[in-house]
Amino acid sequence: MTVKPEWLRVKAPQWQRVGSVKEILRDLGLNTVCEEASCPNIGECFNAGTATFLIMGPACTRACPYCDIDFEKKPKPLDPTEPLRLAEAVRRLKLSHVVITSVNRDDLPDGGAAQFGRCIEEIRAISPQTTIEVLIPDLCGNWEALASILQAKPEVINHNTETVPRLYRRVRPQGDYARSLELLKRTRELAPWVYTKSGIMVGLSETDEEVREVMRDLRAVDCDILTIGQYLQPSQKHLGVREFVTPIQFDAWREYGEAIGFLQVVASPLTRSSYHAEQVQELMKRYPRNAIA
After folding, report:
1. How many Cβ atoms are within 10 Å of 216's Cβ, its own excluded?
2. Which tens digits make up the pLDDT trace of 24-43?
3. Buried b vs exposed e over 97-126: b needs ≥16 C-beta within 10 Å?
């Protein structure tokens, strides 16, 4: 078994604050990707009073071999009360920025787009000053569904490319690299005011140049923000780690990304898609865009 290097050690959280966040989530019957996907930053984020909400789950219709979320071919029907409960959690936690993600719901005609829209609307009604980021699946290429999410006017649309094209068959067999790029491209065309974001994980045998190629592809569709983090094996049944990438390499990718035009690149071993996502608020001040009325 590969031993984790020193730079992947996580500080122990203050469990009193973590417990209060968990209490709110349990009281409202909500899931977080922090818990379901075994995120290494759960202590830090919960201690800061933040969480990335996982809607339409906790089971996913795809069984990606890197992901710790449970697979279920026919998950439960959507809960119409979920958007209201989510909005109440945002209010109780007093979040200035919220991230909403979901499992893949390939069993639904719109991939769950309508549920995303309702969540955004309910948060707007209760916490109008909260900025909203949605980390969405590829919707099986249903661009009308994508347009419906954009109509609810989130500030950030995030969709992860996850890995380099060569590894898709092994890492993301039900995904499609070109489709993910197309989603980001269409988002920019349909909603030029929104900030677009994507993320990849490394340590699965990709090369430096392959990562840079993905970065160039994302800039070609005018993606604004990029996250790069180390893949960690959730269990023995998941894909193994091929390499622990050094912090120096992450710094090199961050510098390259900034040089080719990303507004922000967050790259480190412990970086995840929504890690310190609230920093987008500062980016929005530096690079303001006017929403379409």
Report:
1. 13
2. 888 998 887 655 445 555 55
3. bbbbbbbbbbebebbbbbbbbbbbebbbee
Q: How many CB atoms lie within 10 A of CB 142?
A: 16
CA distance 291 to 147: 15
The candidate with the shortest Cα–Cα distance to 218, out of 171, 253, 251, 172, is 253
Residue type (1 letter), 138: D
Three-state DSSP state, 177: helix
Q: Which residues, including other chains, have CB under 8 Å from residue 219's CB and lie 6 or more apart?
A: 260, 261, 262
pLDDT tens figures, 104-139? 999 999 999 999 999 999 999 999 999 999 999 999
Distance, CA of 123 to CA of 131 (rounded, Å)? 9
User: Helix (H, G, I), strand (E, B), or coil: what is residue 10?
Assistant: coil
C-alpha span between 7 and 13 (Å, rounded): 17
What domains, with CATH codes, occur in the chain?
A: 6-286 (3.20.20.70)
